Amino acid sequence: NAGVTQTPKFQVLKTGQSMTLQCAQDMNHNSMYWYRQDPGMGLRLIYYSASEGTTDKGEVPNGYNVSRLNKREFSLRLESAAPSQTSVYFCASRRDRGLEGYGYTFGSGTRLTVV
Amino acid sequence: GQSLEQPSEVTAVEGAIVQINCTYQTSGFYGLSWYQQHDGGAPTFLSYNALDGLEETGRFSSFLSRSDSYGYLLLQELQMKDSASYFCAVRDGGLNTGGFKTIFGAGTRLFVKA
C-alpha cells in the first residue's frame, strides 16, 4: 500500500543511548517532516525537508538530527536520548511544498520511551 | 508568534451535529487545515480552506473567515466512529521558514455518546 512507513513502532531507550528512526514514503512527495506529539500539546515540528538534499529546523530541533537520504527516505536521529524526548514521533510527507490543500500523509508513529 | 486555539473537549450524541472552532494567529496565512486522529493512530487529513466560506465533504464541512482569523469543522449525523481528536493547522508564513512549517493546534477531543 502506498504511504509513509516508519520503523520501529515501539522503542525503549536508556538515557544517553542513541537511535535512528527511519521513515520512507513511496508517493514521490517532495517534502518530508518529523513531528513529535505529547499529551495536550498537539504536534510540534522537529525538522523538515522541503526537497531532496535540504533540511531545516522546526519548532523543537534541539537534541535531534536528520538526514534526507534520498527522495524517499528521511531519518531522525537522537544522539543522546533524554527522558524529555519520551514522545510519539510521526513522520509525514506532502505532495509539494506550496500545495497545502493536499495535506500531510502521516506514518503510523513511533512510540519512544526514554528511561 | 503563531498560535491556534481550539476547545480541549466536546461531547455530543450520536446523530447530532457538532462544531469545533479554531482561532489562529500567524505571521502569514496560507489556509486552514483539519486533521482527525483516533486513539493510537496517525493523524489523517480531512479538509483545507484557503478562501472564505464553507467547504463540504460528505458529513464533514469546514468553514473559514480570514477577516476573523477563525474557522470551524462541522460534523453532521455523528457516528460513534467519529469519536477522535481533531486538529486545526495553519501553515507558518514566516519569512525565515520558507513557509513550509505547519503549526497544529492542541486538538479537540470529541466524545460521541449513544
Strand content of chain B: over 45%
Shape of chain B: globular
CA(first)-CA(last) distance of chain A: 35 Å
Radius of gyration of chain A: 13 Å
Q: How would you state the average pLDDT of chain B, rounded? A: 90
Give the CA-CA distance, first to last residue of chain B.
41 Å
The residue fraction in helices of chain A comes out at under 10%
Largest sheet of chain A: 7 strands, mixed
Number of helices of chain A: 0
As residue ranges, the low-confidence spans of chain B are none
Q: Fraction of residues of chain B in helices?
A: under 10%
Any overview of this molecule?
The complex is a heterodimer of chains A (115) and B (114). Helices cover 0% and strands 49% of the residues of chain A. The N and C termini of chain A lie far apart (35 Å). Chain A has strands spanning 4-7, 10-13, 19-25, 31-37, 43-49, 56-57, 64-68, 74-78, 87-94, 105-106, 110-114. With 115 residues, chain A is mainly β. Chain B is mainly beta. Chain B is built from no helices and eleven strands. In chain B, the strands form two sheets. In chain B, strands 2, 4, 5, 9, 10 and 11 form a six-stranded mixed sheet that branches. In chain B, strands 1-3-8-7-6 form a five-stranded antiparallel sheet, with no helix packed on it. The radius of gyration of chain B is 14 Å and the shape is globular. The model of chain B has no long low-confidence stretch (mean pLDDT 90). The A-B interface holds A 31, 33, 35, 40-45, 48, 50, 56, 58-59, 90, 97-98, 100-109 and B 8, 30-31, 33, 35, 41-46, 48, 50, 87, 91, 97-107.
Topology overview:
The complex is a heterodimer of chains A (115) and B (114).
Chain A: E1 4-7, E2 10-13, E3 19-25, E4 31-37, E5 43-49, E6 56-57, E7 64-68, E8 74-78, E9 87-94, E10 105-106, E11 110-114
Parallel strand pairs in A: 2-11
Antiparallel strand pairs in A: 1-3, 3-8, 4-5, 4-9, 5-6, 7-8, 9-10, 9-11
Chain B: E1 3-5, E2 9-13, E3 18-25, E4 32-37, E5 44-49, E6 53-57, E7 60-65, E8 70-75, E9 84-91, E10 102-104, E11 108-113
Parallel strand pairs in B: 2-11
Antiparallel strand pairs in B: 1-3, 3-8, 4-5, 4-9, 6-7, 7-8, 9-10, 9-11
